C-alpha cells in the first residue's frame, strides 16, 4: 500500500503533501519545529506575527499561487497583487504599463523617472538582445560580466540590475549565475504581463500556505505532525522505516524536504546516494537578514515596498499598508556583506538610521528584532551542480529550492520541487 512520509513541513514538503492528498494518497508530514513553513515561516515576537524572511512573490509564481488558492479559498484576501513597480528611493521609478508583454515593460521603461534617454535605450537594447538569444548563454558567466558585456552604466547597475539580481538570486552579481538570472527575466518580464505582477502577502508566510495546506491534507485523511524530529530514515527491501520521537513506522515512499545543509545527515551512509550527497556537500550558502522595527505610531513610507541603494538595506516594507500592523516596518538585507559583523542591536540601530533618511521626524523604535537566516539559500553561482528530485534510491525523493531547476532558491522553486516529487509517486501509484 502506498503511504508517503514527507520529512519537512516547509513550502516544498507541504506542496508535495497537498498534491498527494488531493489525489487521495495517504501522507504523513514530519516537521521538527512547532511552526510550519521552514525558511518561510511565522515568528511570534512580543505578540506580533513576523516572518523569518521578507519574501517577494511575483505573478510568475504560478504553482505557488495555484496551490494557495486550492488550499485556502480566501487566498485573495491574503495577497496584494499590483502591476510591476520598481521604486528605488530618490533615484529610480518604473511602473509597468497596462499593455501586453513585453510592451508593458518597454513603455514603462520609456516613462521611467531617474534615467537618461541613453540609459533607457541601453536597457532596451539589452532586453532585445536577450530576447533574440532566447535568454540563453553559450557559456554561463556572472551577472556582472553580462552587464559589462552589454555596456550597462553604473547607474543602471545600481538602481536596476544589481537589486533585481540580489532580490531574485540572493547572490551578489559578481558571483551570481547569469543564466539563472536570464531564466528569471524570461519567465517574469517576457512571459505575460501578469507574470511580472508583484504579489505581496498580507498575512504571515505560515498562514499564506503551509497552515492552510496542513488543514487541507488532514481533511483528506493525511497527518501533519509538528515538533516531530526525524532521527533516522532506513531503507528496507521494500519501502523505508522512519524513526521520530523514539518511534519507528514503515512507509512506501519518502520525500525528504528539509534544508540542504541538514539533508546529508540522512544521505551519508546510503551508497546509492553518495554522489548526490557529495553534490550537496559542495553547495555554498548566502544569508538573508530580516530586520523588524516597531514604532509607537504609524510610519508613512513613500511606498509599501521601497528599494534603497545607499546603505545596508535593500528593501523596506510598510507592514501597516500591507498587513494592518500599525507602526511596523520590515527591512531586508540579502546576501553576504558587512552587516554580518554587527550585533543584532547594532544592526537594528543602523537600519533605523537609514530609515530616518526616508521619514522626517521618525521616532525611536519601541523595539527591533533581527532574524538572520545564515544559510537562507544556496549560492546561485555559474554552473552550480544541484541534485535531482528523483534519486537513484528507489522511491526516495528530494524536494527543496536547492534541487535541480531553471530557477534560483525561491518559494516557487520549493513548491515546484514538491509537486514534481508528488507527480512521480502518482505516476507509479
Give a summary of the structure in a few sentences.
The protein has 429 residues and is of the alpha+beta class.
Structural notes for this entry:
With 429 residues, the protein is an alpha+beta fold. Helices cover 34% and strands 22% of the residues. It is built from 14 helices and 20 strands. The protein has a five-stranded parallel sheet with strand order 10-2-1-14-20, covered by helices on one side. Helix 1 packs parallel to helix 9 (210-219). It is globular and about 65 Å long. The relative contact order is 0.19.
List the main descriptive attributes of the protein structure presented here:
429 residues; five-stranded parallel beta sheet; five-stranded antiparallel beta sheet; 14 helices
Strand count, sense and closure of the main sheet?
5 strands, parallel
Please state the oligomeric state of the protein chains shown: single chain
Radius of gyration, rounded?
22 Å
List the uncertain runs: none
